[in-house]
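Annotators were shown the component list below and the corresponding predicted structure, then asked to write short factual statements about the assembly.
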Amino acid sequence: MSRVQIAFQDNDESRYIVAAIEQDNATAVVHYEPAMIRVENEGSLIIKRDTVSEQIGMEWDVQALHINLITLTGHIDEDDDYFKIMWNN
Amino acid sequence: MSPKKLNLKDKYKLLTRDLDWEFSYEDRKEAFPYEEFEGIKITDWDKWEDPFRLTMESYWKYQAEKEKKLYAIYDAFAQNNGQTNVTDARYVNALKLFLTGVSPGEHAAHLGFAFTGRQMGGIGARVAAQMQSIDELRHIQTQIHAMSHYNKFFDGFDEFNHMHDRLWYLSVPKSFFEDARTAGPFEFMIAIGFSFEYVLTNLLFVPFMSGAAYNGDMATVTFGFSAQSDEARHMTLGLEIIKFLLEQHEDNLPIVQKWLDKWLWRGYRLLTLVAMMMDYMLPQKVMSWQEAWELYFEDAGGALFKDLERYGIKMPDYTDTIKQEKEHLSHQAWWIFYQYTHAAAFHTWTPSAEEMDWLSEKYPDTFDKYYRPRWELAAEMEAKGERFYTTGLPQLCQTCQIPMAFTEMSDPTQVVYRESIYNDERFHFCSDPCKSIFDNEPEKYVNAWLPVHQILQGNCGGGGLDKVIEYYHLEDGVANLDFEGSPDAERWKDWKGVA
Amino acid sequence: MTIEIKTSTLKPIRNTYAHIERRFGDKPATRYQEATYDVHSTHNFHYKPLWDQDREINDPSRTAVVMRDWYDLKDPRQFYYGPYVQNRSKMQENAENNFKFFEKRGLGESLDSSLREKIIELVIPMRHAEVAANLNNMYGTAHGTGTAVTQALIYEAMDRFGNAQYFSKIGLALDGNTGDSLATAKEHWMSNPAWQGVRAYCEKTLTIKDWFEAFIAQDIVLDTLINDLYYRQFDEWLTQNNGRDLLLLMEFMQDRAKDSQRWSDSVLKVVVSESEHNANQVLAWISTWRIRAQEALEPLASALLGDKALADAFAVLEKRLTKVGLNC
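Structure shown to annotators:
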């Protein structure tokens, strides 16, 4: 399995998203780098609306991800309630 | 009746994909005339998978929020004279290279995606390209604005667009983007959308911006990361376009493979400037070029190519060469600029003792053996007042337009020379891939505006080097030459209260 | 003491970029100026486009009109990317609230069924016409000269795509998100005689080679007429025919058209004032496209508003052209 990764600007909003990722992706590894937070996982990684909303304490729109996103790898599957990246190998 | 809840995918389909129609009154080929000449076969645009599903209202909403944040930081940066907080004024030279070399490329990409965003027959692909086009416009504009404050305090920024059309080393990025824009719409999408944006852009932006963060430059890190958040969308478009072309028709495979081979190399050669920036121009280093290459190309790109294998796509043959070159590239590039700094719009310097130790540690197999002695000699000559310059004009590679200075990997003391004869004329190349790119399309590449040829033909101000420098709008002793003794260095000392 | 020294040494060595200084003098520049002027590459092009071998990649000869300085086509709104998206973001927020209100109050259900049908037949198909507007403006961005006009053209192009989506959303607001109204509207677009003229006009504009001619055919001739028919006359008609609630859903398009017209008026005026050559060329284009527009819009305008409507719209076009010095 290849690793996927996603990176966010290091700020308060991102911290909730990263916390949600850690909750939903048991094997994800989080790296804190200058001004950015990079998360890696084997094969795929999912961000769930409900988990992030729970973390933030209010309704969170999946597309708001774009505001703090820096980069990602892998194919994307996006819907109202989740955002997923994955490799097919 | 309460309205049905539409999910993102269905909503996007209704709001975008369903808008196109079959023509009755005109030949559709007259409206989309460039879809066929490259040999690409599209059988069904409906098979296009939207890489992301942003409606215009969401686009405006989220982009406005990003812009608001970004400009608040620019304003704060200017009001607080943020330029005085960078680690060292030498750092600013990386920004000069960025504004003169990279930013105009953003504008070229903006125009290129406007072209494909108009010309591709499928509405899903078109709209994605259009959004990328307007994003690229955002990037050049936010970069001009980020550098605007630096321009008020440092030399080498003020003539960035005049220089981009003229200065010798800036023909490397300029010709890269023009090569892509003068190609057909699908080659452009593979060149910039896939090869550059998907495979290589992380190498440009992420290390550059982490570098900016390490060196106290909040204006740059903010525009960089903010731009990169658009890039994440662009990358997915790049990946979708290649999958789409390969799934449409088996005859597309050899064409796409040829474009990949060409554009990954063209992009890699362009990134030479980034390699040098990372290893030599950042006072506080983030990671070496080699490490960045391994993380963002070998690791991430490797996974990608594994995914593309199912379509018959192969990693280009020359990736072994790149693997070897990663230990040499930055050292050879910085040496080029060190020799020709009198004709460059940024300052150079010899690496300090600590910096050389860092380079030895990062490049254990090559730095001490090949490059340290050269820098130590250069520093020694400088100390004696005999600063080394090359006054002759270098030969440029006909394809990538970088001076011929890269060496054979089997013998890193031997410069590579390759050549081809076309219409009884001899053309020179820095590498095998640059030669084969030329050989595939000689009629295109003979038209390259090679700065050195143009100087020799008197098209750059005529006369001697002084005239050329004038033609560049490069004021001698201001934006060029070594950092030590430059007006930039004097001002910096003044701000910092150093004698 | 130290503070004094610091402020005096932190004096800027220049106010702006050199090309901005050459145009506007040595003084601090606006962000619009720095983001716009001289951004297009103009010299030393490398390769000929494979799709247009007789021209350079950036080439002013992609239109027959000639400007000494294409940067004279300044956008009176001074939109660069940031102000553009922030302005539209505010407008969309308003539109979003309008749509929510419309949906929450079930205003679609209270519409008269004949009015509802009229909207589906004669308004929603505009979503397709807006795609042609998107493409024609995109064409100008790709082939035009000078960032002053090419950036404004991409803002217009994206706006028009936004319009196409808003027209679609009106359909969804009327059909309870099933999409049935959109399918019906598309059938009207494809075969209802009322729409065939407009559709033929749109298809024709997409084959124009000269980007400024595309601007004239789309942003000046067709849009002036459509804007008057839909955002003035039909607006009044709805007010008088129990369709007030629908105005909420049209507000974005209406406000946007006004905003856009300030820009297109200015472009037109500067270009025709530049030279007799330009004025004649533009007149020639207008005279061809207005004939096509007349023919194209007649059935639609009559169906939507009655027989007199198109003449009224043409009077508005006439007035607009006279204002910029074009007497047709």
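Statements collected:
1. The first strand of chain B starts at residue 418 and ends at 422.
2. The mean pLDDT of chain B is 93.
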